[in-house]
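Lab manual, section 2.4: Encoding a predicted structure.

Procedure: take the sequence of the chain (274 residues), apply the prediction step described in section 2.3, and record the output as structure tokens. A sample record is shown.
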Amino acid sequence: MNEIEEILKKRIVYEVNNMKSVDVNRNIVYKNTNDMKLKMDIYMPLEFDNNLKYPAVILVHGDGPAEILENIKDSGQYVSLGQLIAASGLIAVTFNHRSSYRLTRMRDVGDDIEDAIEYVKENAERLNINKDMVGLWALSAGVPYGVSVVLKNRQLNIKCLVSYYGYLDLQHRKEEFSEDITYEKLKEFSPLAYLINVKNEFPSLFIARAGLDHPVINRSIDNFIYKLLELNIDFDLYNHSNGEHGFDIYNDSIRTCEIIKLTIEFLRKHLGVA
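Recorded output:
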């Protein structure tokens, strides 16, 4: 088994009772592209009642080569996150989006995320989802896309956002790329660029920062945080001083478990679960 296969098998280090027992509706096609069918899974809460509508959390995975992302929702990380959310009384939605091919197809990723959210909203009745109580949890390279889509299109009506160890600004990376990757394209998927006149309509926000992450990623997070403070916007910040990128699967520690537990409590609170 190669290193990539080993990583894809890793589950989050925090678990709750019976989370592996939740029911899952797998491989729902939410979008057809010229290249592939994009699919999602729906994780149902324990003791699911078909007569009820549940709040939902949509999980946005990171970027990478197309062959890895094709079935990334089936990786240990996203399966276990879906199980944890469902065992905590919420519906969890995991889905595959396309690769940006090293930022050359960024809009494909943004479009897929927006289409997945709209699919959940439009099919909420059939999926037993309360369409007015939907949150989004983005991780790693999924953060700039997921958070930007929500901040750009407020009609999606996402109640709360969770950002785990991901870029919250891409504009300062322009010098790393060719001329094909324009400043405007990076700005379109830089959450920092949307922090203008948003105070009264900003979704509840939870940011998890990995202290041992790449300095360029943490610089982007810090720039975003400084702007939030300048605008006097409420947000929850948790720094994992000894955390690596992907600490939820790599760092089995008290601090990791604390942050994941607090994330679930944040989602339950802002999505109306007692």
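Check your result against the sample. The chain has one domain: 3-270.
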